[in-house]
Amino acid sequence: MAARAPQGARDKLAFLLALVPYLLDRERADVAEVAEHFSVSEAEVRQAVRLIAVSGVPGETDAYLPGDLFDIDWGAFEDDDEIVITHRVVINEPPRFSSREAAALLAGLQYLSALPSAGGHEVLDSVMTKLSRSASAEPSQLAVQSAGDADRILATVAAAVDAGLSVEFDYRTARGTSERRVVDPLRVDSVDSDWYLRAWDRRREAVRTFRVDRMSAVTQGSQAISTRPGDVAVPDALFSPSDQDTCVTVLVDVQILPFLGEYVDSVPDEVPAAGRVEIGLRLAHPDVVSRIAARFAGLMEVVDPVELRDEVRSWAQSALDAYETVPPSSDRAD
Length: 334
Description:
- By secondary structure, this protein is α+β, with helices and mostly antiparallel strands.
- The chain has helices at 8-24, 31-38, 42-52, 74-80, 99-114, 121-134, 149-163, 257-260, 288-295, 306-324; strands spanning 29-30, 71-72, 82-83, 85-87, 165-172, 178-191, 194-201, 206-211, 215-224, 246-253, 264-266, 276-283, 300-304.
- Helix 2 packs across helix 3, helix 5 packs antiparallel against helix 6 and helix 9 (288-295) crosses helix 10 (306-324).
- It starts with 7 loop residues before the first helix and ends in a 10-residue tail after the last helix.
């Protein structure tokens, strides 16, 4: 086969990148054999091999030491025209996670394995073991705290969904009231660390969304569900707009916009990179605005309606007044 010289730097680079794995797959390779395989001249093969011998990656000191470079059997190369790589770098060492990266991934896998609805725990355990071993350094030991009652409630709800049985529970609404609900569970969804039950409420005869952490005294009924997931439309959005919703205008710091999620109803066309912006919220219950304001204290101000603004101010003042009624600690250090 006639030799063909690579044309330009791009072809030379492609040849070099293909040559390295070719040589690594073979214990020995003749210069003439390599030249014929890649359709290049023997002189170009020798030039490429000499370049490989001074290639590698810098070590921890950012300097190239002998162990950081490829090496070849120079005697076989110079005397017998044979190419033998005696020291390998880079190609046979895949990138490794740092200890911090591995710790973050392990924490996520621990969280997944702790979920009652997560299957294949053996697979997750195997992945975590391999990840710990393959990190560049020993990952930091992290523990994911269980949510306690919420996990048990979630397990009961998930089992009812799988079994197609009704669920009964006490539900604390955003207004702070509690009432007994009997529902046909349809599916379980999550948003960040919050879990929600999507279910057909038998009393209201409509699909409702329930936060798992507001459910208590949960029991799995013995009755089969009368409304199945295929019988009704369950929207992907957790909260669907309703004519009964309360629309609230608030002034918020732009940094909390991503955290307001589906509460946001309207946003200006142009949002500044920093500072405050006036937006609209749509809430199922007006009391929810107090909870949002408490979560983002100092970063949100209720503008309208005025009566809701006054209610939030009164609620915050009551919370402050409660601190004044707390007696001082008797074991305070002098």
